[in-house]
User: Fold this.
Amino acid sequence: MHLEIIFKDPNREKIFLSKTKTLCAVILSYHLLTWFTGCPFRFFFGISCPGCGMTRALLAALRLDFAAAFSYHPLFFLLPFFLLGYYLDPWINWSRHYLLLGSVAALFVLTYLVRLLFLHDPVVTWHPASGTLLKPFFHLLNIKLPG
Assistant:
């Protein structure tokens, strides 16, 4: 990718503004959704999602507390790269980067599984009986799980 392509694109301001509006709408929607329930994935299923702790990690990194950021989510340092990729998306040929994207996705899943199964991480938890959607099934089947 050549940077002069981006800087010479007459639509770059429109694209940047459109992507910024979309990003702000997503952030606002996320905060409105999580205001009362916390993490929606954990609320509905009782299980932490692979991105659990990422918001807290980002806030800790913005305070320059990188040790806390790493403890919340070890892959927090990838967020600026995702943001950069989001803004440069119209000029990136993603078909050439499938291996990289697949590797990052696999790294997220591997990190999630290690945190969930082996580290007893307080951020990543497993309590399916407390999930709003799963609670009726556990009650109906009379299954008792810790949590």
The mean pLDDT is 77. The CA atoms of residues 31 and 38 lie 9 Å apart. The chain has eight helices and no strands.
